[in-house]
Amino acid sequence: MKKGAAKSLRAFAIELAIYAILVICYFFLVLHLLGEWLYHLEAHHRYVYATVALLLIAGQAIALDAVTTLLFRFLRGRWR
Amino acid sequence: MFFPISNTHINPIYLVVVGFVIGILGGFFGVGGSFIAGPALRLMGVDWNYAVGTDLAHIVGKSIVAARHHRTLGNVDFKLGLYMALGTIAGAEGGAQSIQALKRAGNVNTVVSFVAIVVYFSIAVFMLWESQKTLRSDKKGSWKQSAAKGAQSKEDHSAFHPVTQSIQRLKIWPMIELPTSGVRISLWTILLVALVGGFFSGFLGGGAGYIRMPSMVYVLGIPTHLAVGTDLFEIVISASYGTFTHAVKGNVDILIALVMHTGAVIGAQIGVVATQYFAGPKIRLAFVPLPLIGAAIVIYTLVTGHKL
User: Where does residue B256 rank: exposed (0-12), middle (13-18), buried (19+ CB within 10 A)?
Assistant: First the structure.
């Protein structure tokens, strides 16, 4: 039982580490590449900005859910 | 890091940690966590109008994932969700228009802060009373059979049940049959609950799950597991509308929402796993300190005017 919990904890810690690296890369991508463009949209094209904002958050939700699910499946299988 | 849309400097690690904590709360309690997110953004110097709109955008992302998982578990009453979405959108628009009026009057931060304190405090007091009373009744043995089923029970008992039954007995046309939830209730009751939840969603931010989820259980009599799933499905629709309308009004910093959401995704996984170890009334009792923390942060920023 304790061995199983330790394995799950180790898999989760690795998942967290990989996820943190991916998130840091993503920050640079989103904040540096999209930041200026989104700021411009928000200032001059509010309706386009509102649509893009919704698409971005929905797209990120689906993408990150897929990433964490895949990572979890992969690491669970690896440490089993 | 500078966020140009809301004109604020915030450490992105702080946002990820806030998102992570809210993710855990969302996974565990089935709420959006806006009572923490709003005050947490306010603490960083983000104006209330941006805190409200940005939090709504962040909630959309979180709810899409959670509602998808709940749908696969059969925890979504689509018919109820669609009726509620109508009332919520109308309420959310009313809330957003009130924020606009307060912005024009120049006292948005003070008024929203006071309303937030009253709402958060009232929810904490009510849930403390209800969960304590339900747990005491469990000990006396009045619900021994269902309590024996523990956390796996689909039957959810509440000390508020007699009031729920009285509300369901109100026969105001048109009556709506909800086979998935096993409830027959007036359309007006559904719309009123949704309208009130929607108003607070537009006014205080988030999906207003802290009001709508308890209302669905206590007022409409929906079983808790279905209330959580249906609430999340309905939040996807209403929070999307709220995000759009707030973004058009210049109240959404989507960059802050995107950064916060990265933490929420991983936190939600932990929260969902944690629910397996607790039963209904104990979860509701554990919920009590959270709105109080939100209220304490608002009082702190209101009294001192400080930010971290």
Answer: buried
Is residue A65, in this structure, part of any structural domain at all? yes
Residue written as token pair 């463009």: A37
Per CB-CB distance under 8 Å, the chain A contacts of B64 are: 58, 61-62
Question: Which pTM was predicted?
Answer: 0.78
Residues B159-191 have pLDDT tens digits of 677 777 788 778 888 899 999 888 899 999 999
3-state secondary structure labels for all residues of B147-164: HHCHHHCCCCCCCCHHHH
Residue A12 lies in a domain: no
ipTM of the complex: 0.87
User: Smallest CA–CA separation between B109 and chain A, in Å?
Assistant: 22
CB contact under 8 A, A61 and B58: no
Q: Which domain holds residue A46?
A: 26-80
Residue numbers in A near B240 (CB within 8 A)? 54, 58
Number of domains forming the structure of chain A: 1
Q: Which of B244, B250, B261 sits opposite A61 (nearest CB)?
A: B261
pLDDT in tens, B218-231: 888 888 778 878 88
